[in-house]
Amino acid sequence: MEDIKIAILRMEGTNNEEEVYSAFKNLGVSPEFVHIKELESKKKSLENFQGIFIPGGFSAGDYVRAGVIFAQRLIKSSWNEIRRFTEEKKPLIGTCNGFQILSEMGLLPDINGKAEKSMVLSVNKSGKFECRTTYIKFSNKNPILSNGINTGSILQAPVAHKEGQVMFKDPNILDEIIQNNQIVFQYTDAQGKFGEYPWNPNGSINGIAGLSNREGNVIGMMPHPERAFDIFNMSGREREGKISTGKLFFASIIEYIKSHAI
Amino acid sequence: MVKMKNTILITDLNNESLLELSHSMGLSLNIEEMIRLRNYFRYLGREPTDVELQAMGQAWSEHCCYKSSKLYLKRYFENLKTENTILQMEDDAGVMGLDQDYAYVLKMETHNHPSAVEPYGGAATGVGGILRDILCMGAQPVAVLDSLYFGTDFEDKPEDRLTTRFVIENVVGGIRDYGNRVGIPTVSGSVNFHEGFTGSPLVNAGCLGIARRDEICRSRVGGIDEILILAGGRTGRDGIHGVNFASRVQESGDKDRNRAVQLGNPIIKEPLIHAVLEANSKKLISGMKDLGGGGLSSSAGEMCLAGNCGGEIHLDRIITKEKGMKPWEIWISESQERMLLSVKKENLKEIQDIFNSWDVETSVIGNSVSGKNMKLIYEDEIVMDLPLQFLTSGPIYARPFKTRKEGVKIYPFPVEKEDYLERIKEVISSPNVCARFNIVRQYDHTVRGNTIVKPFTGTPNSETHSDGNVIKVIDEGRKGLVLTAGCNVNATVVDAYNGTINTLSEAVRNIICSGGKPDSVVDSLSFGNPENPAVLGQFVDSLKAISDFCKEMHLPVVAGNVSFYNNYRGTDIPPSPNIMMVGIIDDVKDCITTEFKTPGNLIVLIGSSNYDLSGSVYMKSIGYPSHGFEKTNVQELRLIKENVQKCISNKLIVSAHDVSSGGLISTILEMCFGYELGASIDLSYISNSRTYNKLFAEGGNRIVAEVSPDNIQKLTKMLGDIRVEIMGKVLDSRTIDVSDSGRLLFNEDILSFKTLWEKGLDNII
Lengths: 262, 765
What we know:
The complex is a heterodimer of chains A (262) and B (765).
Chain A: E1 5-10, H1 17-26, E2 30-35, H2 36-40, E3 51-54, H3 68-87, E4 92-95, H4 97-104, E5 119-123, E6 130-138, E7 154-161, E8 163-168, H5 172-179, E9 183-188, E10 208-212, E11 218-221, H6 245-259
Parallel strand pairs in A: 1-2, 1-3, 3-4, 4-11
Antiparallel strand pairs in A: 5-8, 6-7, 6-9, 9-10, 10-11
Helix pairs in contact in A: 3-4
Chain B: H1 15-24, H2 31-44, H3 50-59, H4 62-65, H5 70-77, E1 85-87, E2 94-97, E3 102-110, H6 112-117, H7 119-135, E4 140-150, H8 164-182, E5 186-193, E6 202-212, E7 227-232, H9 242-245, H10 266-281, E8 287-290, H11 295-306, E9 310-314, H12 327-332, E10 338-343, H13 348-357, E11 362-369, E12 373-378, E13 381-387, H14 388-391, H15 420-428, H16 437-440, E14 451-453, E15 456-457, E16 464-465, E17 469-472, E18 480-486, H17 489-492, H18 496-513, E19 517-526, H19 533-553, E20 557-563, E21 567-568, E22 571-572, E23 576-585, E24 602-606, H20 617-621, H21 634-649, E25 655-658, H22 663-673, E26 679-682, H23 691-696, E27 703-707, H24 712-719, E28 724-730, E29 735-740, E30 743-749, H25 751-758
Parallel strand pairs in B: 4-5, 9-12, 19-20, 26-29
Antiparallel strand pairs in B: 1-2, 2-3, 3-6, 4-6, 7-10, 7-11, 8-10, 9-11, 12-13, 14-17, 15-16, 17-18, 18-23, 19-23, 21-22, 24-27, 24-28, 25-27, 26-28, 29-30
């Protein structure tokens, strides 16, 4: 197998990078941390990678709005590189703060391909930071994730955020993304039924937990598969199960890269 | 004679003027201490500078020199170490061996006084400070824990202080916003409510870190001519006189009240952690120390003294947050997110490059020199030149103290009313027993992806409480550490000695019940005014209890702190020896959790108790006074520690939960809640005491365990001489029935308890 290189982006306040790193490492590929400063100074280029992962955290403290500063710095330093990257169908994935950053950059849901900002991840309906275990339904045939996850599967995944409520700029966008199959994950209860709070921890419209672009290679989601990589990271009866959510998730990304010879 | 700037005339002052000076400069030194200072400068033949006086005020504060507690800490805690102890009570945190390559670093500390006046900032910087204590040992922080103590006047709106409700909301907010932002999981701790904390809340913040054994960094300069670097945040006027403020009885209108609290910034801390650990793993740092209480004054002095050197520091080279800061303000500022590094000249460039790459500011502020003095220079003038020995030679007091007599007093007790259901519901929904969801769900406890046993366990969104919390700590193995922290204040308030032992017994059982082996102890000791003999007596009793217990259990006490003067309107807080305990688990797949797993399994009670109700939540709930607390049989606990642990690693026990606040019935109910499985319980054989005592007593060394009927004989055999009684079995329904001596006490849906338990804090936070 040729060496698969994954860039894990970070700046001050990024704080989920270690678990993302060990998830990729554990599956035999080569993750590498890339600091925003290294992109700004052109010390590193995203072109050399087959995948980009933007981990969670509180980039720059999230004091303005979650993800906005990281997004602006990425746009300024690497916009063309990122656009090329996504056009080549390479995977660009963000969890939690990473999702917030991708939506601030206009890369999600990006229904018309113009990268216009059309959604926000607003403060949770409870008004509180919510650290809990959720269930998410893999609700489409995303080209990356369906390499390892069956459509319709219910996965257990932890969330931990205060700003995760998906809201769109205008109501038509929701119809569009449904039509385009851009909803990747939706919050459900353990049996797979759509549920209100606390099953939907932030009050997202249509229980949206994760979205993709039209092509399906840019994915953003609030839950943290990287924190459920070990079977003992799982909660409840799922601890006695065979395979963790994190393994399914990260293995799918690697399988996609391999099978598409990216 | 050396000419110095800004000198203050003290050598000719009389006692009255000395005291006035101490007050007007905010030194918080008493008359004896001021006289000692005056005599010393008479001996030097010169007057002190303002910087020198302020530095002495810092160094001789209770907070920095432990003048009221040192004598007793030495008497009871010296040499409480084991063969695995690497550093005990030496540097900023304790260090214990984990395996041949790794060590773990632990510390817990109070941040009470700042949290009382500015709860959000006080609690946040409590977390920030403890992270730096771990970091400066060269360790990666892996878990944060906190123990909080609040008053009970939820509805009051006092005029002279913040309301309790506001304090709770903001302390939790401070811990949440700091811990979550810096990305270290807040996994463990405790929340306690008692009327004695009204006006004097306590915030204990703890942290656990992991370091390679060969990368442990000491808090001292590595010899003369090393360069001193200040890294991280800038120095400001926030947190001036924090230590002095924390070392006296609070009065309203205290001018230091607001500026004594530091401001935290987790987004400076997060890259600071990366930069420090990177430089340390490249062996570029000879020694480092965080800047906490007392600021540079305390850190630079201690680092030079510990390295047998003097120091020379240019105060004008320190980057400040604002213009016009006076030299003494720079020297004693307690601004957050700062670390002092001592490095060899040849490593300076490489260190600066690393910190620059993380956007962390550094400034070279001076160097270590031969000799014994700390010399400070500001704009080419010497502003302080004092021997470090004198600075750190604070007074040691042996104040009078009065300890309590042991034993539970006999007193008339009300007739049993048989209102069991009502009483259980009241206890289970009371603030000290009920679910902690409203608080703990606000803390990120899964970040870093290594949390194995979370604060809650069972069906997601419908969980119950865990005992110890388990963190996987080494990437290449499956070794984990088990964490717990807290203090049973209802018990310590009536009996400091036995209450402290009970607190320690509970910590040991929390770790055992998760499958771990108890390994080390840290104490953060909060007490009232030590000038009150009864308070100092409680303190001495608690220390004696910790010492007696840890000797018997073969546990080292590796770090700790003391916070006195927790007093509001003349009322001292209950004795609050908060205990953090860490255990080791060789393979995290062997850890167990509290919820009942399988219908048909047997429910057994391991360990014994006298079933005294004194000091229990039940006694408080019926409004009956408590006198004394049941004595714990520590020899029995030692046997339990060894044998129960063996039963768990042999898979004989599938779930376990200790009996503590709320008594046996609360333990059983919490075990039912996790998967909403019922239980059938018969209390007849566990004791011949009355039903209420069996339901609600909190003493002893008891653990409730779930065992498959196939394994019960093996279990009894393996437990040896430890008392074990079968109490009932796990049901396939949601009902719980409890009987005693042939009488059915009740038969009830467990949800009728669970809903109350879940909502217990809804009116508070």
